[in-house]
Amino acid sequence: xxxxxxxTVVQEIMAALDDAFLAEKYARLQASALEGQQxxxxxxxxxxxxxxxxxxxxxxxARFGFAYYTVDDDAELWxxxxxGLMVFxxxxxxxxxxxxxxxxxxxxxxxxx
Length: 113
Hints:
Layout: H1 3-35, H2 39-63, E1 67-72, E2 75-80, E3 85-92, E4 98-105
Antiparallel strand pairs: 1-2, 2-3, 3-4
Helix pairs in contact: 1-2
């Protein structure tokens, strides 16, 4: 795929991930407010939000044909040979889940068939 097509995909991925992370931050604020009133409900809400964000991220990247690879407990790698892109997600857990991502373009120089 040409550079222009790849750039469009990168912009779409960045926008979708940014939207998902912003929604997660908003949900975290809601859970924090709820925690003072009903701790059990807040914990359940956080668990559901964690599952939803994981599902949203997987959906975003799967839509573009990315394959998932586990790096370690705090990071994920998604690769698309079709677009020549890698999306590296890392997250931390200090009182919440905060994501960072890097998108790297690459060229496939050879393949074994």
